[in-house]
Amino acid sequence: MAEKLLEVRDLVTAFDTEQGRLRAVDGVTFEVEEGKTLGIVGESGCGKSVTALSIMQLLPRPMGHIDGGSILFKARDLVVASADVMHDVRGDEIGMIFQEPMTALNPVQRIGRQVSEVFLLHKEMDKTEAWASSIDVLEKVGIPSPEIRMSEYPHQLSGGMRQRVMIGMALACKPDLLIADEPTTALDVTVQAQILKLIADLQKEMGMSVILITHDLGVIAETCDEVVVMYAGRVVERAPVLELFGNPLHAYTRGLLQSIPRLDRERKTRLPTIEGNVPSLEEMPEGCRFSTRAPEAHDEAAIRERPPFEEAAPGHWVEACRFCYAG
Ligand SMILES: Nc1ncnc2c1ncn2[C@@H]1O[C@H](COP(=O)(O)OP(=O)(O)OP(=O)(O)O)[C@@H](O)[C@H]1O
Ligand SMILES: [Mg+2]
Fold first, then answer.
1. Does 80 have pLDDT greater than 70?
2. Can you give the C-alpha Rg of the chain in angstroms?
3. Which residue's CA is minimally distant from atom 26 of ligand 1?
4. Terminal-to-terminal C-alpha distance of the chain
């Protein structure tokens, strides 16, 4: 069995709001093995980005807190790591591609300065070395004429090129883990495919692990080894990719899978969608969170009591609500 690089256990992340302290992530557990890709999928607002920001210790302060659990990365618990340790971990050992490339790049600084800074912060390089390394990394992520791009500002680049710069910055120090939060959502389909291929090629070359966050189950199917399905701050199902697509056990996962278009089905019928919305954090049921939208009506006990998380088959975990998972 491959070694585990990251182990997230019972992670609870909450925000202080006008309605009190609300849990955006409520007891999330998963692992990432060395060299493997873990996909995290789920509708908007399910806590995917908050999970990623918790791992990086980049929650917005002072509202965001980790209220429980552990994040073991190379035998250290990042939840209790000092600011100095986290400074070394970020960028050097864990790289992150943020969901909003325009907000992550500084609009008033030239590309070259922003990329060089990663090397200056984490590697013992002088400015000339950092500049040369930046050109190398931009070349590696497929940016034509990198020397010229270095002196341009982010707005002078296309969306796909900006995303490549972000990937270059995340990979500059050859991290052991790359967290890619919706790395292709803002891009058109051909650029999307190029960027995903680029990440996969660099992963193979560098042997790193990847956490890929996406809404897109097609992307998951093509790129991931294992999948975590999140719903309303919790993991409802987790399995190796083929197992998840071949044998989905939770009603929410089934709903997500039914809503992907398939070429082998007749087009006359509309695609089924999951009715309703994710409940807001203030009105979240403590029991099965999918109870408000599930096809089967839930009884009081199922709405009130948190279902156990069970291993239904080797490596295939499911939140065992009596109504959403018949077992
Ligand atoms: N700074 C904050 N203050 C209060 N609540 C927040 C804050 N940031 C996120 N949340 C809440 O945490 C929950 C999870 O948000 P998160 O951004 O992780 O969702 P997501 O799964 O990444 O969604 P998307 O697919 O839209 O990116 C949401 O209910 C969101 O409103
Ligand atoms: Mg997000």
1. yes
2. 21
3. 44
4. 27
User: What letter would DSSP give residue 286?
Assistant: S
Give the residue, out of 18, 28, 49, 228, with the most ligand 1 atoms within 8 A of its beta carbon, to mutate for a pocket test: 49
Residue whose Cα lies nearest atom 2 of ligand 1: it is 15
CA gap 162, 184 in Å, rounded: 11
Q: How many domains does the chain have?
A: 1
Q: Is residue 99 part of a domain?
A: yes
Cα atoms found within 13 Å of the Cα of residue 12, Cβ hemisphere only:
8
Q: Are 23 and 11 in contact (CB under 8 A)?
A: no
Report if residue 30 sits inside a domain.
yes
pLDDT per position as a tens digit, 259-274: 877 666 666 666 677 8
Question: Is 184 within a domain?
Answer: yes
Q: What is the pTM assigned to this prediction? A: 0.93
For the CA of 40, the nearest ligand: 1
CATH code for the domain in which residue 219 is found: 3.40.50.300
- Encoded tokens for 229: 């399905």
Residue numbers of the domain that contains 227:
4-103+174-231
Residue 1 has pLDDT above 80, yes or no: no
119 domain-assigned:
no
